[in-house]
Write a structure and sequence with these properties.
Structural class of chain A: mainly beta
Shape of chain B: globular
Largest sheet of chain B: 6 strands, mixed
Number of strands of chain A: 11
Helix content of chain A: under 10%
Largest interface: A-B, 21 and 22 residues
Distance between the termini of chain B: 37 Å
Radius of gyration of chain B: 13 Å
Order of helices and strands of chain B: EEEEEEEEEEE
Number of helices of chain B: 0
Oligomer: heterodimer
Distance between the termini of chain A: 37 Å
Number of helices of chain A: 0
Structural class of chain B: mainly beta
Chain lengths: 113, 111
Amino acid sequence: DAGVIQSPRHEVTEMGQEVTLRCKPISGHDYLFWYRQTMMRGLELLIYFNNNVPIDDSGMPEDRFSAKMPNASFSTLKIQPSEPRDSAVYFCASSLKVRTGKNFGEGSWLTVV
Amino acid sequence: QKEVEQDPGPLSVPEGAIVSLNCTYSNSAFQYFMWYRQYSRKGPELLMYTYSSGNKEDGRFTAQVDKSSKYISLFIRDSQPSDSATYLCAMNRDSSYKLIFGSGTRLLVRP
């Protein structure tokens, strides 16, 4: 059983560049979540989808951040333009029900220089 | 004040010790409580999931919830070096999607 798959695992980019992070949730999971983890702020929920529809994006820090889920097996988180303070680990997670435990991917480690 | 407080550690114990990890919280509406384990450079992995108060046991792991004290614990018996990781508590309200995470406690089990 494949878990949540994220790509790229590591990304180093220059300030001002566009960054696209990708996620494939576990098949059959109706909920998909994007989290960001930093030393200072811990794990923060950015946005979540239910059946491919964005439900709550109140955690998205700025308009530079956007997320899409064009189908049940794929989601993207885009940062344009990127800034050094966006450097963090971005996790995608999926679950069967919204309140149950979530399965996390291995994360995308982003460094913006 | 954060909604969920967790001592960051690190907590260093010898192999075979009983480990106690704890979180306190301020929101009495929290009903669902979880513990995640996160190895270095990996994603969090769900260990235990409990609803409301009480104990739950799974192998060497026991989760306890004391809602009257707003305190949850994770006990690890016969700790192993492979248990060395960061342990994150998480919780949410009934009918809420928003999981609130603690900052994590780093555990080191010495051989």
